[in-house]
TrEMBL record:
Keyword Transmembrane helix on entry: no
Catalytic site positions: E250
GO molecular function: lactaldehyde dehydrogenase (NAD+) activity
PROSITE patterns named among the record's database cross-references: ALDEHYDE_DEHYDR_GLU (PS00687)
Record-stated family: Belongs to the aldehyde dehydrogenase family.
Keywords from the UniProt entry: Oxidoreductase
Keyword flag Plastid: no
Domain Aldehyde dehydrogenase: 17-470
Provenance organism: Sandarakinorhabdus glacialis
Protein name as it appears in the record: Dehydrogenase
InterPro entries tied to this protein: Ald_DH/histidinol_DH, Ald_DH_C, Ald_DH_CS_GLU, Ald_DH_N, Aldehyde_DH_dom, ALDH-related_metabolic_enz
């Protein structure tokens, strides 16, 4: 299997090839794998104008028509699953087994959206709560918010694009999307499939663009919603410049997992190794902090180090590979420097720490001081560190000792500790007896504090992409 020599962009449902300016590299070899068209400001403006023009026709689509478009995507993504997985493996450096898993989630997300597209219900509400409202009745429904702007990240180029595109189609919102410049192929292939449907002209545009030339995605007042997934620094800056439009942000984290004294250590170690190192740790809910009860600390650390050392690193196209390259050499070098900083400040390196180009070894440490970047910031790579607790309340406080709050995991068999964690942890989601890295595509997903604003998950994204429109009905006194 091989990639095409070049890929187009999509403006108003149609493929255009104005240039081949964007080189997409094979993240393992560093060589150019293909080239993609790049949009300039004029093209982005055209895409937005087309979305505005398409908004009435999109809103007028019947539920079954929206569902048919989404089910067409399910069918075509299933038919092209091998192609999608291969493209993802090359453009993101994601191990092929993980790539196949992401294609499965892409399909799931569109299928969920197809189901939800015919369930957009409203509510009848009695208004006669006092004498002055006698004879009045209300009801409300949800209507599409209008043209949307989507900016998707490099780490899940298929599924995180799907979590914006599929809900928009389910509710009838036209959109423009800027995929990450390092991994645009997934979104482009989604566009290719959407172009096979009968969506109204202008319903979608998928426009790779350099960040510095893409201000219209954020600032244009014709757009009614901006949904951004990426780094906190960029996301909060975009919100500040977004004007009156609604903003949904899915940002970073430095997720923690608690290993309580009654946990099944073999199971917890198996899942925590996965949570820390799957797709080279490049997940905003990847395990970064491992907080272990003192009674089981030594035993759990030993199991974790052994399992981490056994992980297979190498070419992501190989079936045996678990650890592939990070997205580029710069990011791998940055995280290598953070590890060195932590060790210099007193942390102990338990395994890993080495780097060759974009390949960073799976790394575990302990004793990481709270002042260093590895503790306070999002690592976004294959590194995690241990700390020890004696009191469960103190462990919860340690999880909360972060500017982030996306998800947290707790391995415990204690019902009361489970409920205490759910009550007290300052995160968007608490996962019991699994890692914070776990997500199903129909659940509400999002964070608090610096981790974001709003929720994804198809049904919940659909709520953000719609507005409530109320209806009040008055009956004449003689009709009551």
């Amino acid at each position: 299997m091989k990639l095409q020599d070049s890929y187009p962009l999509y403006i108003a449902n149609k493929a255009e090839q104005p240039n081949t300016d964007l080189a997409v590299t094979d993240k393992f070899t560093g060589e150019v794998a293909t080239r993609v068209a790049m949009a300039d400001a004029a093209m982005i403006d055209r895409g937005i104008a087309a979305a505005v023009e398409a908004a009435p026709a999109m809103a007028a689509m019947a539920s079954y028509e929206r569902q048919a478009v989404l089910m067409h995507c399910v069918t075509r993504f299933t038919e092209r699953a091998d192609e999608l997985a291969y493209a993802l493996c090359i453009e993101a450096g994601k191990p092929i087994r993980d790539s196949r898993g992401e294609v499965g989630r892409l399909i799931d997300t569109f299928r969920i959206a197809a189901e939800e597209s015919v369930r957009m219900t409203g509510e009848v509400q009695p208004l006669d709560i006092s004498a002055r409202a006698k004879g009045y009745q209300g009801m409300w429904k949800r209507v599409p918010i209008g043209p949307c702007s989507f900016v998707s990240p490099f780490n899940f180029p298929l599924n995180l694009a799907a979590h914006k595109i599929a809900p928009a189609l389910a509710v009838g919102c036209p959109f423009v999307m800027k995929p990450a410049s390092r991994t645009p192929l997934g979104a482009i292939i989604i566009g290719e499939v959407l172009a096979e449907t009968d969506l109204p002209a202008g319903a979608f545009s998928i426009l790779p663009a350099h960040r510095e030339g893409a201000d219209l995605f954020t600032t244009d007042d014709r757009l009614k919603l901006l949904s951004f997934t990426g780094s906190p620094d960029v996301g909060w800056d975009l919100k500040a410049r977004a004007g009156k439009k609604k903003v949904v942000l899915e940002l970073g984290g430095n997720a923690a997992v608690i290993i309580d004294k009654d946990a099944d250590l073999d199971d917890a170690a198996e899942r925590t190794v996965f949570g820390a190192f799957y797709q080279s740790g490049q997940s905003c809910i990847g395990v970064q902090r491992i907080i272990v009860h003192e009674a089981v600390y030594d035993a759990f650390r030993t199991k974790m180090v052994a399992k981490t050392r056994a992980l297979v690193a190498g070419n992501p196209i190989d079936e045996a590979t678990f650890i592939g390259p990070m997205i580029d050499v710069k990011e791998a070098a940055r995280l290598g420097e953070w590890i060195d900083e932590a060790v210099a400040a007193g942390a102990t390196l338990l395994c890993g720490g080495g780097r060759e180009a974009a390949m960073l070894q799976a790394t575990l440490l302990e004793g990481v001081p709270r002042a260093v970047k590895l503790y306070t910031e999002e690592a976004f790579g294959p590194v995690a560190f241990f700390s020890k607790f004696s009191d469960f309340d103190a462990a919860l406080e340690e999880v909360n000792d972060s500017k982030f709050g996306l998800q947290a995991g707790v391995f415990t068999r204690d019902l009361f500790n489970m409920l205490k964690a759910w009550d007290r942890l300052e995160v968007g989601g608490v996962v019991i007896n699994d890692v914070p890295s776990y997500r199903v595509d129909n659940m509400p997903y999002g964070g608090v504090k610096d981790s974001g604003l709003g929720r994804e998950g198809v049904k919940f994204a659909m709520e953000d992409m719609t507005e409530i429109r109320n209806l009040v009905i008055r009956r004449r006194p003689q009709d009551i």
